[in-house]
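Worked example

This section walks through a single chain of length 137. The input is the sequence exactly as stored; nothing has been trimmed or padded.
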Amino acid sequence: TLGVPNKVLMEAIVSQMVGAGLDKYAPRDVAMIVTAHATLRIPLGKSEAAAIAEHILWDPTQFTPVSLVSIIWAFAKLGIREEGLLGAVAGLAADPKFLARFRAWDVSRLAWAYATLGTLNPALMDAIAGRVLQPGF
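Given that input, the structure is written out below as tokens.
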């Protein structure tokens, strides 16, 4: 972002994306818009956040680890707690094969987001600990 919080513009963009159907947008683009909202501290409406979470839950594997982490991080930064989404992403990330695709930055942002939201998921935290302790991480 340019660091210029234009609330009207950002709300119009996310409203357009949700209204047109999120499936018309690349997962990367959805993640970038959500991340921009968080970076600029512009809240997402409840219905928009729910629509984004529902879209991801439809098929979370369409999102790269970077996109998933970006959205979870942004939701945490904005104080948005979508339990279904948090559970689905934790389930994916608890799989060592999936988590192996995460960079150090992604792992730290994921852990931060779950901690910030107060979401306790022992399987996810064990997987994160295992990933961090891998040689070469």
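What to look for: The chain has a mean pLDDT of 94.
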